[in-house]
Amino acid sequence: MANNRVSLLVMLLVIALSPLVCSATLYNVGDSGDWRLGIDYNQWACSKSFHVGDTIVFKFNPQIYNVVQVSKQDYESCNASSPINIYITGHDYITLQSAVDSYFLSGFPGQCHGGLKLKVHISVESSSPTPPTTMTPPSPPTTIPGLSPNPPFICNQPYCPPTSNMPGNDMPFYASAPSLLAARSSLLALCFLPLYWLLFASC
Fold this sequence. Notes:
The protein is of the alpha+beta class and 203 residues long.
């Protein structure tokens, strides 16, 4: 029973670590070639994408070559006197453990100046998510204190033209104008009738 539990734990551990192991890549420096003069290794490295956890393998004849890991400044000046690491077995595995560029060259005299050097650039993938785009709400309309907007005027009543009627008359005033003139003429005639009678009677 105990052995079954141990086997189950080991299996779960292997399954959990398998994505980490499978995600790393193994690169043979120069692909099928060895570490030697006559090959532009920086051109080879430009076609690769190195990440933290990847492994590069140097294969060479240890009698006439070696691999020296140096700083960027020593790499540019081909100075192997202050090495970070030295690899001399001829079949060396180097795991890229940090997101920092690594620099390698041959420590044998004249070989670095002859082009036997390599810069390994580590690709760093950004894990920070892109912030979402926020929309700015529109500004509220400007209002003046003490004033309120007037509501629109709506007329619900039908239009009726104004009329003015004479007292005791159902017809509009403008229709009774001739009748008024006739009444005035009759009144004047009645006023002058006694005067006419006296004049004709004296004759």
